[in-house]
Structures are given as C-alpha cells and as structure tokens.
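Study the following:
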Amino acid sequence: RSNRRLPTRERSARMTEAEIHKAVVNQLRYRGVEGLTFWHTPNGAYHGQRPWQGAEMKRNGVLPGVADLILVHDGKNYALELKRLEGHATNAQLRFLDAVEENGWKATCVYGLDEAIAQLETWGLIR
C-alpha cells in the first residue's frame, strides 16, 4: 500500500525518525517565525568509527545525547528530541534535556510528527 492512501495517524506511525526529522525541518524552513535560528548537531553520524576516533571526538567536545534540533529565537533557547511513535529516548538524551532545562531552556522529547509540530506551535516557533 502506498503511504499516500493511509490515514494521517497510520502514515505517521510508519515514519522513521529520519523522515520525521526531515519533515520537521521543512516545517521550520517554511513556517518558522522571523528571526528563528535552528540547527542539527550530527553526533549520530559518528557511529561505527574506530575507538580512537570516538576518543578524539570527545576531546573535541562532542556531547552524547544532544537533542536532534537546537532552536534559538528572541533570546530563548529550545531543544527538541524527535522520536518515532514507538521510540524512546536514551539516558544520554534525557540527561541533555534535563541539563539544558536547568539552564533555562525549554526542552522536550516528542513522539511522531504531529506531536513535534504541535510542540513547535506551542513554543510559538512556527506560524
């Protein structure tokens, strides 16, 4: 069956985390409020490298668990961890979200595309 024929909820349930991430970035690009800056820190791109490379990355400041999207707007900082509907955050991801919240950021983990978009709307970051 083509995903185009599936009801939204069923289609969302089949989305991978990478598909959710790309869809959220598209929403931010086209619906983001004026002055919004956002980025993704590609820590996950380093899986599978040799042990010495991981140590070098750590010396260079790579931090495990950094949220999928970091957003800055109007002097406020936000961290958004994206998961598919059946996903779960790692301990490192939860520690990161807690740490930045303790420093005044708004930070959360969301499950699925609909929840991600709703959170961005609640934060006032997309129109």
Q: What stands out?
A: Confidence is low (pLDDT under 50) at residues 1-7. Residues 40 and 69 are 5 Å apart (CA to CA).
